[in-house]
Each structure stands twice: as structure tokens, then as C-alpha cells.
């Protein structure tokens, strides 16, 4: 079958930028079917994953071929990542979430302009995988994305995962600047921002590579401001019903984390859970300065990590909501003797 594709632009973006490249990545790709049967086609809006640190909308990775054969317009785009997207001081100086705001900008553009490509702005489905799935979940609860899509598909990611929201981003911001060196910012957010703005993208990317594994650059809960993408806990918003209630498909692939375990022994796995992961198992509606955090963390560690070495959990907070939702587990192979 012949296929016609309209490519608005393409950029490959990962946060470790070559020295001769600029941090310019905000491009959108629009792929159209050939000989479409309608001038108001449904639209699939793809958000790629990569841990909020790497990824791109390259056609070789996320081609539109299958979908455009079925009279669907596919939109893909690039958004900022790593320290250029999610660095935050937890205040009004560097509020964070630039990557999510890039996504929202692309979604707004699509909703406004897709009619000129034969698409129906009222038939936009957002979907993503891993960090893209978590991003999809965050668009579900962000007022900035309200009314811009009619359905969502979150693949192997959710707004409720511990890595979808960083509760205490400030230490990472200062640690990154410390890795560059030569700064005189103390604990002042404004001075830190001034220092970082004077640095090159190469310097910032190199400083990120020197951060410890526990230093994360994820979406954050912003302070209230007119440009904020997210100011409240995903748990709180879902529990209160204050979110964009659209049909949702959410699911995982069986054994999909095995890729991360190729060099992991069982002993290392348990040690990681006990020493590294336990402080991330607290509910995201507890703020970093909450007096309850230490006791909750200790209880979780005692109940699960120290008494049950095979601890695993799956939060299905979506199960009791009223709008259409579906949960899947995709399994196509069996693996034994992992450890």
C-alpha cells in the first residue's frame, strides 16, 4: 500500500548534546494516510519514553506506518529532556517541568492546527510508553491539558509511579551546579540560575553525567504560578476526581523489566530495594518536609523489604474511577532462571 507522509520537521534529541550542536529540539512531525476516507480523521499523539533523560521522535524508532494504513493521522514530536527540561529549585526561580510544558505546547498546536491536515481536533488520543506513559498520566491530571484530547493510552508508565514525580528536586539542582564548579551561589536559587545560564549545554550535560544514580531529574510539583503544569499530587487529584476524565487504556508488558536485569544478581536486587528504593516508596502526596515521611518510609521498609525479599507492588488507583478504563498485560515469551 502506498503511503503519503507529511513531515513538518525532525530532530533527534538526547540530553548529552555533541559540542557542535545546539539545544534546539522543539519540532513536530505529522504523518498522513494516503487516500484518506474522511476529512476529519482521528489523531494519535505519541509521547516517547526514555526516563525523562533521553529519547526522540525519530521515524526509525516510532514510525507511523501501521497506523496511517488505518486512516489515522499520527503526530510525533520532540521535547526537552534531562537537566534542560526538569531541573528545579522547588521555588519560583526554577519551577521545573519544562519538558511537560513542551509536550503541552505540542498538544495545543496539534489541537489548533490538525484540521488543516484533515484531522479532527475532537478526536485526539494521546499515548506514550514508559516516561511517555507517565507523561500521558500527568496530562490526565493537568488543567493545562484539559480539553485538548478525548482519550489516553498509558503504556508501561503511570502518573502514580515513584519516578513520575520528584518530591525534592532542589538538592539535585545545586549538586549539578557543584559538578560544574566555579560558582558562588551558596543556597540562593536566583544566583544558581544566573550561574547555570552562563554555562554551555556541554558543561551542563557533562555535570549531569557526574551526578549519583540517586539524583533524579523527573517532573516536579510546582509552586502555584500561572504557567504551572502540575502543583498537586497525582494521588490527591485522582482521589478527588479533579482530573481530565476521558477513556483510558493502561497496561504493561510481561517481564518487560528483564532488560534492566541482565547484569543483576538476586543479592544485588534485594540490596537495591533495601538501600536505594525504600525512600521512593512513600506516597507522592507527602511533601519532602512532611513530618510523616520518615515514619512512613520506615514502616514500608520493615513490612515489605526486610520481611519479604520478593516484594512487588502494583498500584491500581484507577480501578474505582467512573470513566471507561482498561488494563492489559502483554506477554509474548517466557523467561526462566533470571537470577
Automatic annotation (TrEMBL):
The keyword Glycoprotein applies. Coiled coil: none annotated. InterPro entries: AB_hydrolase_fold, CarbesteraseB, Carboxylesterase_B_AS. It comes from the Eukaryota. It is an enzyme of class 3 (hydrolase). Pfam families: COesterase. Residues 25-313 form the Carboxylesterase type B domain. One of its GO terms (molecular function) is carboxylic ester hydrolase activity. Its EC number is 3.1.1.-. Belongs to the type-B carboxylesterase/lipase family. Gene3D superfamilies: alpha/beta hydrolase. Keywords: Disulfide bond, Glycoprotein, Hydrolase, Serine esterase. This is Carboxylic ester hydrolase. It comes from Hypothenemus hampei (Coffee berry borer).
Amino acid at each position: 500500500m502506498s503511503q503519503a507522509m507529511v513531515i513538518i520537521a525532525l530532530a533527534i534529541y538526547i540530553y548529552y548534546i555533541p559540542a557542535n550542536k545546539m539545544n534546539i529540539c522543539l519540532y513536530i512531525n505529522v504523518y498522513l494516510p494516503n487516500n484518506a476516507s474522511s476529512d476529519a480523521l482521528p489523531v494519535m499523539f505519541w509521547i516517547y519514553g526514555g526516563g525523562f533523560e533521553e529519547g526522540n521522535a525519530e521515524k526509525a524508532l516510532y514510525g507511523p506506518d501501521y497506523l496511517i494504513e488505518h486512516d489515522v493521522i499520527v503526530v510525533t514530536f520532540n521535547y526537552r529532556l534531562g537537566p534542560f527540561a526538569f531541573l528545579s529549585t522547588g521555588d519560583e526561580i526554577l519551577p521545573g517541568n519544562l519538558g511537560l510544558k513542551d509536550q503541552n505546547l505540542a498538544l495545543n498546536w496539534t489541537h489548533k492546527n490538525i484540521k488543516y491536515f484533515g484531522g479532527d481536533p475532537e478526536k485526539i488520543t494521546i499515548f506514550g510508553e514508559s516516561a511517555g506513559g507517565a507523561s500521558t498520566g500527568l496530562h490526565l491530571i493537568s488543567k493545562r491539558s484539559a480539553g485538548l484530547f478525548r482519550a489516553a493510552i498509558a503504556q508501561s508508565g503511570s502518573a502514580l509511579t515513584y519516578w513520575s514525580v520528584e518530591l525534592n528536586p532542589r538538592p539535585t539542582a545545586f549538586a549539578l551546579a557543584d559538578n560544574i564548579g566555579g560558582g558562588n551561589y551558596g543556597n540562593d536559587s536566583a544566583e544558581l540560575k544566573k550561574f547555570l545560564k552562563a554555562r554551555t549545554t556541554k558543561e551542563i550535560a557533562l555535570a549531569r553525567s557526574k551526578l549519583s544514580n540517586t539524583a533524579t531529574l523527573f517532573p516536579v510539583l510546582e509552586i502555584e504560578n500561572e504557567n504551572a503544569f502540575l502543583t498537586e499530587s497525582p494521588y490527591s487529584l485522582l482521589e478527588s476526581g479533579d482530573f481530565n476524565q476521558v477513556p483510558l487504556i493502561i497496561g504493561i508488558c510481561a517481564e518487560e523489566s528483564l532488560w534492566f536485569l541482565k547484569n543483576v544478581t538476586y543479592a544485588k536486587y534485594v540490596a537495591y530495594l533495601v538501600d536505594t528504593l525504600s525512600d521512593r516508596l512513600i506516597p507522592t502526596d507527602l511533601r519532602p518536609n512532611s513530618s510523616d515521611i520518615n515514619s512512613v518510609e520506615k514502616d514500608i521498609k520493615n513490612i515489605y523489604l526486610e520481611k519479604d525479599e520478593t516484594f512487588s507492588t502494583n498500584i491500581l488507583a484507577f480501578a474505582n474511577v467512573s470513566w471507561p478504563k482498561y488494563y492489559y498485560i502483554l506477554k509474548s515469551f517466557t523467561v526462566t532462571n533470571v537470577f
